[in-house]
Amino acid sequence: MTRNLAGDFFDLMDRLGPFEPQPRVAVGVSGGPDSLALCILMKAWTDRVGGILLALTVDHGLRHDAAAEAAQVGGWLAARGIDHDVLRWEGPKPAAGIQAAARAARHRLLADRCRSEGILHLALAHHLEDQAETVLLRFAKGSGPDGLAGMSPLREAGSVRILRPLLGLSRSRLRDLLEAAGQPWIDDPSNRSAAFARARLRTMADLLAGEGWTAARAADTARRAGRSRAALEAATARLLAEAAEVWPEGCVLLRPDPVRAAPDDLALRALGRCLASVGGARYQPRRDAVERFLRSLSDGAPPRGATLGGCRIMPRGDGRLLVAREARAADERIVTGGGAALRWDGRFLVTVPSGAAGTVAALGRRTCALPKHLERLPAVVRETLPVLVREDGGVGFPRFDFANEFNIQDESGTGTAIGVVFAPPEPVSASAFVVV
């Protein structure tokens, strides 16, 4: 390994700290040159700080050679003393939007494995040119500061911290590292397919550079936009602290007066965060739809209800707005044999006790005796909570305990309770965008 590259990587990792003693890090590795270089660099860093490294490959089951390639990656990494495992995307695949679905499945599988292993840090191999492509693609779609900030080198994502320590390193430097180390790699043919926008951009790299659009310049644009985004997000957090009350049952009570009084951009961000969180979405709803609702708040009339981003917004008698999940959107059904932790409806982490087989689904309007802690909830909130419908017909109701002591009988006595924690991918109180 070249000394300069290792030193640069160590410096980048130091900026993403501080880290706990003996940090545990997982790396998502496809077998391509970028992720293999990240594995080698991360192995050097974890050895240096006394940490532990686990490499994870996701087999999406979309290509005939995928399983053999994953095994090949495991062999390469084992020779370097790096533990490796393969995660498989099981179940039916969508006919349309397969690339986005595969990306979402990959992130879910990696995050779930990290959580089960107690690993806090998940490192991904996006590099300088990836950042440049991201900025250009978002610019083409008319993005503002949030989009032009590109990818953050550090993002809190529920139970894991997403690290992208290669964003300041070029693709050529990473390949030089592999060649110097005698490490082969796997070329994914989709990276050259004209069907994908990023591949088309790569064929235009020289033309764009001739007009002054280099990867380094794109990274500078991302850094400046990132500073603006971080400042806006900090201001939005202050507004939400004043206006929003987040319930562990997955809803938000919102005071409209602070939202009305805020500058439009902050108000839109605050509303968008509430909707994304309650809706279990990774991204905020379309800005034009949120703008229409904000105008309805600012016209001087009493607040009106709306359906937006998979959520219902309803005025309450005390003047506040209740933001709750839309019942028809909470339609996921997950069959489980018990003894598992799973994510339901994108919003909740559900712990099912061992031996409690059944289907995790929305409570809906089931006609059964309810425990008191559910009776007290607004019906629109209660009906979109997960329950375990047992094979014997009993219903295991959610308990919002945080001590993980869920193997208890629910208050109705009709079934074993399930543990439920509201953990959306984009929480209302997310940390601000990180710029290093």
UniProtKB/TrEMBL annotation:
GO molecular function: tRNA(Ile)-lysidine synthase activity
Compartments in which it is found: Cytoplasm
Residue positions binding ATP: 30-35
Main localization category: cytoplasm
Record keyword Cell inner membrane present: no
UniProt keyword list: ATP-binding, Cytoplasm, Ligase, Nucleotide-binding, tRNA processing
Swiss-Prot/TrEMBL catalytic activity: cytidine(34) in tRNA(Ile2) + L-lysine + ATP = lysidine(34) in tRNA(Ile2) + AMP + diphosphate + H(+)
EC number: 6.3.4.19
Domain tRNA(Ile)-lysidine/2-thiocytidine synthase N-terminal: 25-203
InterPro entries for the chain: Rossmann-like_a/b/a_fold, TilS/TtcA_N, tRNA_Ile_lys_synt, tRNA_Ile_lys_synt_N
Highest taxon in the source lineage: Bacteria
ATP-binding is among the record's keywords: yes
Function: Ligates lysine onto the cytidine present at position 34 of the AUA codon-specific tRNA(Ile) that contains the anticodon CAU, in an ATP-dependent manner. Cytidine is converted to lysidine, thus changing the amino acid specificity of the tRNA from methionine to isoleucine.
Family statement drawn from the similarity comment of this UniProt entry: Belongs to the tRNA(Ile)-lysidine synthase family.
HAMAP family, per the entry: tRNA_Ile_lys_synt (MF_01161)
Comment block on domains: The N-terminal region contains the highly conserved SGGXDS motif, predicted to be a P-loop motif involved in ATP binding.
Protein name, entry field: tRNA(Ile)-lysidine synthase
